[in-house]
Amino acid sequence: MDKPADGTVGKALALLDEVAAYGRPVRFAELLQEGDLPKATLYRLLQTLVSQRMLAYDEASHAYSLGSRLIRLAHAAWQQTTLAPLARPHLDRLSRTIGETVHLAKLDNGQVLYIDKRNAQRPIPMFSDAGKIGPAYCTGVGKAILAFLDAPALDRALAQQSWFRHMPRTYTSAEGLRGELAEIRRTGIAFDREEHEPQIICVAVPILDAAGRPLGAMSVTSSTLRHALADLEAFAPQLRATAAAIAREAAAFTFPGASRPPATGA
């Protein structure tokens, strides 16, 4: 569950991850059955996390959920360490102008973390939502970021991909993807051609700092039931302009780790 050196803190954090992964309140018996902690250890950690308000316990349902203190910490982290607060007005303007779904994302341990989203005027059901983690190798925002990582960081990120074939056009190896990443680096535009979800397509661009390193990426997403990929590509100039505006604002702020080239593009 965690490395031995992580000790009790590592076990507690891993337990928080488990509870969060359920996406709903979870009972003690489920955590005991599906986890690898001894019963006494699990009970002790849950009691501590509840007393610290990192978890909440509902007496009626006998279930645990994420606590108010954890939610406040997550909100503070979102405000301080992501592009979301800076990007918000720019996303709002772009969303009003084009009327389609807009995503803002960054790379987190080789995967895509969606940090903000604006729904289309006629919303489309899809996987992505702010706070969700998705694969980098088969999403437009993921490929837009991967393409601009330096060689060592790219190698690390590609080694973290699952290469699961979600759809017929999904890449299943790093070798297959590298050619497209070179093209994305040349054009500055990435696409999702129904590679992650059926009927979901997008055009994406990176958000680059002054040194050309990726701070994140943004995309316009729609469905093949409404648009062809060429329709979305027409939004590329507006996406580029918005990404450039966000990057200019980001340059006035110092994000954690910004004094050195980021290993993950976050």
Topology of helices and strands:
Layout: H1 7-22, E1 26-27, H2 28-34, H3 39-51, E2 55-58, E3 63-66, H4 68-81, H5 84-98, E4 101-108, E5 111-118, E6 133-134, H6 140-146, H7 151-159, H8 174-187, E7 190-193, E8 200-208, E9 214-223, H9 229-233, H10 236-250
Antiparallel strand pairs: 1-3, 2-3, 4-5, 4-9, 5-6, 7-8, 8-9
Give a quick rundown of the structure.
With 266 residues, the protein is α+β, with helices and mostly antiparallel strands.
Corresponding CATH superfamily of the largest domain: GAF domain
Biggest sheet features: 6 strands, antiparallel
Named CATH architecture of the largest domain: 2-Layer Sandwich
The strand count comes to 9
Distance between the terminal alpha carbons, to the nearest Å? 25 Å
Major beta sheet, strand line-up: 6-5-4-9-8-7
Helix % is 40-55%
Count of distinct structural domains: 2
- Helix-and-strand structural type: alpha+beta
Radius of gyration of CA atoms, rounded to a whole number:
20 Å
CATH topology of the largest domain: Beta-Lactamase
The global form is globular
